[in-house]
UniProtKB/TrEMBL annotation:
Record GO cellular component, one term: cytosol
Keyword Nuclease attributed: yes
Gene3D superfamilies with a match to the protein in the record: 5' to 3' exonuclease, C-terminal subdomain, Beta Polymerase, domain 2, DNA polymerase beta, N-terminal domain-like, DNA polymerase, thumb domain, Metal-dependent hydrolases
Principal localisation: cytoplasm
GO MF assignments: class I DNA-(apurinic or apyrimidinic site) endonuclease activity; DNA binding; DNA-directed DNA polymerase activity; exonuclease activity; phosphoric ester hydrolase activity; zinc ion binding
Keyword field: DNA damage, DNA repair, DNA replication, DNA synthesis, DNA-directed DNA polymerase, Exonuclease, Hydrolase, Methylation, Nuclease, Nucleotidyltransferase, Sodium, Transferase, Ubl conjugation
Described purpose of this protein according to its UniProt entry: Repair polymerase that plays a key role in base-excision repair. During this process, the damaged base is excised by specific DNA glycosylases, the DNA backbone is nicked at the abasic site by an apurinic/apyrimidic (AP) endonuclease, and POLB removes 5'-deoxyribose-phosphate from the preincised AP site acting as a 5'-deoxyribose-phosphate lyase (5'-dRP lyase); through its DNA polymerase activity, it adds one nucleotide to the 3' end of the arising single-nucleotide gap.
High-level lineage: Bacteria, Pseudomonadati, Bacteroidota, Chitinophagia, Chitinophagales
Protein name: DNA polymerase beta
GO biological process: DNA repair
Organism: Ginsengibacter hankyongi
Domain called Helix-hairpin-helix DNA-binding motif class: residue spans: 54-73, 94-113, 129-148
Keyword presence, Nucleotidyltransferase: yes
Cofactors: Mg(2+)
Amino acid sequence: MPVVNKELGKIFSDMSHIYQYKNGKQRFRAIAYEKASRVINDLQDDITTFTKKGQLEEIPGVGSSIAEKINEYVKTGKIKKFESLKKTVPIDMLELMNISGFGPQSLKRIHQRLKINNRDEVIKALQDGRISEIKGFGKKKVDNMLRSLKLHKTVEERMLLWNAIEAGNKVLDEFKKMKEVRQAELAGSLRRKKETIGDIDILVTCDEKSRKKIITKFVALPLVKEVLAKGDTKASVIINEFNKQVDVRIINPDEWGSALLYFTGSKEHNVQLRTIARDKGYKISEYGLFDIKTGKRIAGGTEEEIYNKLGFESIPPEMREQKGELDLAAKNKIPSLVTLTDIKGDMQMHSTWSDGTMDIEDLARFVSGHYPYEYIVLTDHSKSEIIAGGMNEEQFIDQVKEIRRVNTKLKKDFIKTGTEVDIKADGSLDLKDELLEQLDWVCASIHTGFTHDNTERIIAACENKFVNCIGHPSGRLIGQREAYPVNWEKVFRVAKQTNTAFEINCQADRMDLNDELAIMARENGVKLTISTDSHQQSQFAFMQLGVFIARRAWCTKNDILNTASWNEIKKFAERKRKK
DNA sequence: GCCGTTTTCGGCCCGACTGTTTTCAGTCG
C-alpha cells in the first residue's frame, strides 16, 4: 500500500475515534471518517495521483471537507484540525478502541475517574483492580476486557483465504453432522472470497425448538478453545485452529435467504441495499424483506427473491463490495463470472528438473488423473534461480525431449513445454531468444529487486516477442512482503499493445495479481491466465483461489486465457510472434 | 462529514448479546 494512503488512513481512523469519544451526537461524522479511512486504505493508487488531478471527490466517501484535509496533508504533512483535536482527548488511550469491549464510553469513564492518559495505564488499572471500582464495571466486564486484550494480538492478524476455507469447512462439517441442523453454510468475507479473512461466519437453520441444543453442542466441541458469547440465536467462540473467532448464527429455514444476505455482506453492500429498500418503502433485516407500512413480510427464503423484489438481478457473493454491482444488477448486466469448471489447463508448475517435488511423468499422471484439464504447461526455473535449481538452455532442450517421451507414453499431447524465465535487473531475460522460440509458452517473472520500481523491467519483458505472460506480477507475499512499486496503468497499456498476458498466481500466500489489479488489467483489455505455480501435488488444488480472484475482479470466461483450448492459446502466442 | 431519478437539507441499516440494571446503555457484527 502506498505510504501516504496508509498515513492518511490512520489519521482519519484516529479522527473517527476522537469524534466517537468526544460526543455521541457526532456519530455520523465519526462514521464518515471511518469510511474515508477504509476507502483510502483499500485504494490501489497512491492518493497523490488524485490530488494532482483534482479528482479526490470522485473517491466514494470523500467529500469537500475530507478532500481539503487530504490536500493539506499532501502539501504540508499535517492536518491542522487533527492536531488540535488530538489535544482535546487522551489520544494514546484511544488506540484501545479497536479491541472488543473497549468502546468510547467505557474509555471515557475510565479516563474521567482515574485521570488515565494512555493504553498502558489502562491495562495496569484493569489488572490492579482500580477499574472494577468504577460504577458500571462489574467483575465480568473487567474479566472480558482483560481477556479480549490478551486475544487481541492473535485474533487481529488475518488468515489466508486458503487456511480459512480449510478451518471453516472443518467447523461447518461439525454442524452438518448434527441431526437437528437443516442447512449450514459459510458466510461473511469467506463466502465473498476475500484474500484474507478476519473471522469465520457460519449460518445454520433448524426448527426453532432445536436452537438451544445446537448451540450447546457447538460450544462443547473439542475444536472450540474459548466461548466469547452465546445466546438463543448466536454464539461466538475462538477455535484452536489459528486461534480464530467463529461466529455462528441460527435462524429459521424460511429466513435462509435474508439471513445469508445479511451475514455475507459486505457491510457496505448491505447498507446500500437496505437504504435502497427503505427508499422503496421496504425494510430489510436478517429475518426478511418487509413492507414498512403494513409490516408484512414480502420475501426472505432465498437471496434471489429479495434482490428481485427490489428490482435487481441476483449478485454473486464475490461481487458484493459496493463497487457498482447494484447499478449493474438494476440493468440486468451482471457478468457471467468465470467458474472453476471453465478452466481447461494449468499454465505454471515446476518439476524435479528445478525446484518441484515430482518428476515429469508422475506430475502429468497425477494431474490428468485428478483434474479435468486438456493441457498443462511445465514452467521450470531458468539459470539465475540457482537456489531453485534453475536450468540453462541445454537442460531445457533435454527437458523438451523428456516431455515428448512422456506425452508419447500417455498417448496424448498433454504437457506443453515452457519456462518461468527470470527477468533480470536490466529487464533482459536470462535465457536466449533462440531457446524461448522453441518453447510452447514463456512466462517471465521477477525474483530480485523487490524494493525498486519495476515498471521498466516488466515493460521490457512484455516487449520481448517470445514472452507470453508475466508471472506473479506484483511480487507481494501476503503478510510478508509488500508489492514493489509499479506504474500499473502504463504496464497494462504495454501488455495490451504487445499481446502479453498477466498471471493470476494461485499460491495461497501470493494471490498475485490481486483482485484490484486484476480489475485494472481487465479494464485495460489485458488477457489473464490463472495458474497454480505448483511445486508439489497438493498445490494443484489452489486453482480455485485464482478463480475466486478472477470472480472478485468481475472476469468472465473470455477474460481468462486458460479457459480456451490449446489451439486458441497457441494462436494468442503466435499473434505476438508475428508482430 | 457525506450524499441526492422525489431532497443542497435532513437524513444517515438493523438487531442481538452482555452486564448491570430495574428499563437500558454499550458494544458488536
